[in-house]
């Protein structure tokens, strides 16, 4: 059997927090509490441990190591006191997958209508992978995807199938 185009692996040990707020009003408070700058539209910022991604005009996603999750939520809730805002731990509702290796882009392209070349080093793209909602951004050796945990097994399977050379899946 030929070597896979890329490796598909689940990423564990990370917590995820959805933050909904008026970013013009509360952005500075969120940035201070998260320890990261507010990302520009369709961008993600990281300090190597934590990530803060732009999800929509009033929504950010903070990704932190699980041990830091309670403190991060408390800091955000404190920072947003008095604001019309929402801070929700969505760690159990999401799954993170890494697609890494020389063929990572090819594997993703087989399943997603997104222009991967348009996703810069700090770009974040919300799209679909075989009709499953995902967010994608670049990592050192490929791409990281976040999807719903309810579709985690399916998403993992279709990515692994797309990584098989000659699988019959053609890039879109």
From TrEMBL:
Q: Which Gene3D superfamilies does the record associate with it?
A: Heterotetrameric sarcosine oxidase, Probable tRNA modification gtpase trme, domain 1
| Transmembrane stretches, start-end | none
Looking at the record's lineage, which domain of life comes first?
Bacteria
* The name this protein goes by in its record: Sarcosine oxidase subunit gamma
